[in-house]
Design a protein that fits this description.
Helix content is 40%, strand content 16%. The protein is α/β, with parallel strands linked by helices. It has a single domain, classed as 3-Layer(aba) Sandwich (Rossmann fold), CATH 3.40.50.1000. A six-stranded parallel β-sheet has the order 5-4-1-6-7-8, sandwiched between helices. Strands 2-3 form a two-stranded antiparallel sheet. α3 runs parallel beside α8. The longest helix is centred in the middle third of the chain and has 12 residues. The chain is globular and about 50 Å long. The N and C termini lie far apart (34 Å).
Length: 188
């Protein structure tokens, strides 16, 4: 099911994955290769395009109704990410940062959350520092091997193809909130 860091092997092996997931209050994620498939589309007139998965976006909005917080930490800067984050009501948006650990420390300080209360979804080496600090580290199925090796969970879905939704569902199901959120959504 998952690639597990050695120091967490016994905890997860004993069936406490749900306990680890229940603690998560905020999910941080990279953009390219996580929220998108990692490809850049350069158009005429210096325009850039990215494709985001609607299922990931819907899960972020749904989870936000439960009080779950989200944040983006990415090395690239583009107005597209700002626009998508605004649509999804993601307040913590940090672009142009290759030292993601320093950004993470700032988010931690502002929120007052502990490492165990964060999940991070990353796909490449820039994500490794944060992934080693959070309570739950996940990656898309097409992440690089070094990231898969340190992840607590390797998604079945690829980046930009529902991996964020997969992690959100895991967390909300562990917290016993998934079914109620669906029922509430149906009433909207």
């Amino acid at each position: 099911m998952a690639n597990i860091r050695p120091e967490q092997y016994l905890i997860i092996q004993r069936g406490n994955l749900e306990e680890i997931l229940r603690r998560i209050r905020m999910i941080l994620m990279d953009v390219d290769g996580v929220l998108t498939d990692g490809r850049f589309y350069y158009l005429e007139n210096d325009l850039e395009a990215k494709a985001f998965d609607v299922k990931d976006g819907f899960a972020i909005r749904l989870a936000g109704k439960s009080g779950m917080k989200f944040g983006i930490i990415t090395g690239k800067m583009t107005p597209i990410v700002e626009k998508r984050a605004k649509e999804l009501e993601i307040e913590e948006v940090h672009q142009g940062y290759f030292d993601k650990v320093e950004v993470y420390k700032g988010i931690k300080e502002r929120t007052g959350f502990f490492d165990a209360e964060f999940a991070y979804i990353g796909d490449d080496l820039f994500d490794m520092g944060v992934m080693k600090r959070v309570g739950f580290a996940a990656c898309p199925a097409d992440a690089v091997d070094d990231i898969k090796a340190i992840s607590d969970y390797v998604c079945k879905s690829e980046g930009g193809r529902g991996c964020v939704r997969e992690v959100i569902e895991m967390v909300l199901k562990a917290r016993g909130q998934w079914e109620n959120l669906i029922k509430e959504f149906i009433r909207w």
